[in-house]
Amino acid sequence: MRRRTYVNHTNLLETHNQSFRGLQLFASAQDMKLKARAAAKPIKASEKYFHFSHMNLQHQICIPHFQLRHTVSASSKNAVFFPTVNHPAYSVPRTGSQITNLNPDVEKDSYIIDSAHVDPNLETPKMQKIYALSAKNDVLVAGGLAGEYAYKSLYSDPSTPFTSGMITHSELSSTNHVHTYLSRQSGLPQAVFSSNDSQIHTLDLTTNKFISRHDHVKYVNCSATSPDTRLRVLVRDAVHPLLVEADTGKRIGKLKGHKDFGFACDWSADGRYIATGAQDGLIQIFDLRMYADSPWRKGPVQTLLAELGGVRNLAFSPAESTGKPVLLMAESADFVHIVDASDGLFAKKQTVDFFGEIAGVTFEESGDRFWVGVADPEFGGLMEFEREKKSRKFAGAGFGIGKGKRSEGRYTAAEEEEEEDGGEFKRRRRRKMGA
To answer: pTM score, two decimals?
Structure first.
């Protein structure tokens, strides 16, 4: 029933123009969509890389815009950040203008940025609604509806005020996405804002000054910088994602294959693969090793198909992952897919299904946990998943999750293994040590 009734929003694959020309264009777009989906490779969900751990139901997570789902980010296993509609500290509900910091292990929360508390003497307006945020590279950065931004070091005292300003004063100023990276020259963090003014704005978070602004003609919905910080991929209100030079914005080429606007992209930690997701329900994987000479002439090495709607959030497991590299693909609702990225084939996956709109997905630094923000007014919250022992490179050695029992009664991989085999783990360990 859900598959039959859920409406997947598209821009090019729908029409409100009932003229002959409008219907003709719509039929052509639908034909392209069917051909593109026919070329996608169906993957049976037969693997199990992660298992459900628990869910926090105390917070109602915001979706600021039905097309934008980049509002959940983790800096570590003890800190997950997201904008909330309501916070226990306030008697009056907010509209997503504050960011909650949740420690999933002890379910303790606090707010770290609250734009309603902006100093009235500053020229920066209050952030009406948080549209995008990132909590990587030791800094929390948020972008707002009207072109505002705010950031704060994650090592600073909670009472330390955050830094704020304006990304753009354009009428089309909403911040669609933000990510951070470390500068090649200084090693200090910089923020990249993808904006509805069709530009990529790069902010030096040390000096609070914009160091570049690159125009890309169409609204930029998401971007990702390569691990070596030299290249950038971006998806726009256009069919083809762009590959550009990060420093200059110079276009290198188009990545062809999608049939509708794109809203998600990410770069693998080894720098080899780019993943893009669009409203046509396709997820495309590009191998950058094949694009040295003519990236605009080659297609994707793999095309995957969503179950329900367009994929609006993509996340490769981080470089520090202790387990098999995977790609998270979050649809607009109900489905998160975990695809094996270890062999470059992207031919195996696990599918997690539930009920609710998805606000975002994020990995913790070791790649052994990820969280899904579920924006359902009745049963929404933050879902946590943990990596299966057999999916870890160092299963049973205490790597990945950390040592010691957690407050919910879960154990490290070694303790679980010992419990399952009746103490055989200790006996094997003693024999290995010569005891």
So the answer is: 0.81
